[in-house]
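Researcher: I've got a protein sequence and the SMILES for zinc ion. Could you write out the 3D structure of the bound complex as structure tokens? I'd like something to compare against our soaking experiments later this week.
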Amino acid sequence: MAAHPFKICDDNILGRHLVTTRPIESGAVILQEAPLVRGPFLHTVPVCLSCGKILDASCWRPCSKCGWPVCDKNCEQSPTHQSECILTAAKGSQITIKNFGIPNPNYQFVSILRALYLKQTSPEKWKKLLSFQSHSIEVSTLPPSFIRNFFKLEDWSEEEIAQVLGVLLVNGHELPLTQPSQLVVYDEASFLEHNCRANCTKTFTDEGELLVVASRSIEPGDHLSICYTDPFWGVQNRRQHLHQTKHFWCVCSRCEDPAELDTHLNSIKCPKSTCDGLLLPKSFLQEVSVWICDKCDGLFSNDNVSVLLGKIGGELSEMPKGDAQVCREFLQKYEKVLAPNHFYLLDVKMALSHILASQNFEDLSDGDLGLLLKMSEDLKIVAERVAPAERRLLGLILYRTAKSKIEMARRQDNLSEFRAVLANSKATMSEARLLLANEPSSLPEGRLHRQIGLELRLLDDLLKNK
Ligand SMILES: [Zn+2]
Ligand SMILES: [Zn+2]
Ligand SMILES: [Zn+2]
Ligand SMILES: [Zn+2]
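Model: Sure. Here is the predicted complex with zinc ion in place.
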């Protein structure tokens, strides 16, 4: 790979961050790197410490040297398992795991041991780990002194253990290649700052390397960013989540704008029956006291709005999963109360889209097909505006848009119209394929990328023959 198109900069507010040094095209891979640390999340059910698979009582064996569970001899001997194996064996007693299928507290040590062991095996990686900004982390459940004593880690200071724990908690990414997913720490990618409307997206290779991809064209001098939270949450939920997990209050331009680039992701409808305005506070960055209607200038107390949103949120969290009818009813009920792209409605539209698109498009009723197309088109507009970095979702939405249009045209029985739709959908599908180009084959998006390739060939044949 050519030299990086960015440099690492440092300042008091952001700490280390990445700034572009030359123009970057949308879709370009900016960075590809292997993890410094890769291991199970701190809270997990027993998994094999080599391949990461969930173990059940009938399919495991204790490692002969350390007692940690593995699948078999091969997994016992794999290099992946060596750090915790050597450090556990060195303390003189084996780990005993008896219960499977429920979270096991011993597993919270594994990724920490893997990180600590770098001090002895890779001084360069160890230095990188220690160079991460350390945060004061609430570690009352896992004091560094306890880890140090339990594993007899005389070569590591309590400060080093605390630092490593902080790095895992704050700089850890989720690697979704295995089930359950794993915790990984990368070096340079850790300097990607957060933005709720990020210009980069991250994905992974099948080997667990991180790929950072430009989600739009980026100019020299621009900061590179990814989104650390769910970009489809409302501003208050995003900021709260970032504060809890990453210890800062986001003040990005998206958070500054209550209407979130005109998507009205947080807006609710004016309750006055004669008014079709939308309510928003002046800003979400300060404490909110009133919401103001953009048509009638009516003022509504934040307390009342909070009660309303709390009630809807509660209903949403108790909704049974995977039930299309329940989703339709929720949308019907709350489209009267919330702005069309309110984050609660978006959430349900995404869920309903997944349910409908998981069936054969030929089997969908005309009504559901129309609904799927409409939801896909709405979601596309919102995603492109507030979260253009969500390339996986955009690829999926474009694919569904094309498939719905083709199926609708097929039902019309008008050959020339059908051909026009096919040609048009081919362009949409090619766009979807491009958005998914960097997805690993072990994930559904990577498999969809392959499938779209096959479907595009079929479309080509159809267009030639008709
Ligand atoms: Zn295994
Ligand atoms: Zn072992
Ligand atoms: Zn923000
Ligand atoms: Zn009003």
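Model: The mean pLDDT is 94. Residues 63, 65-66, 68, 81, 85 surround zinc ion (ligand 2) (CB under 6 Å).
Researcher: Great, I'll pass this along to the crystallography team.
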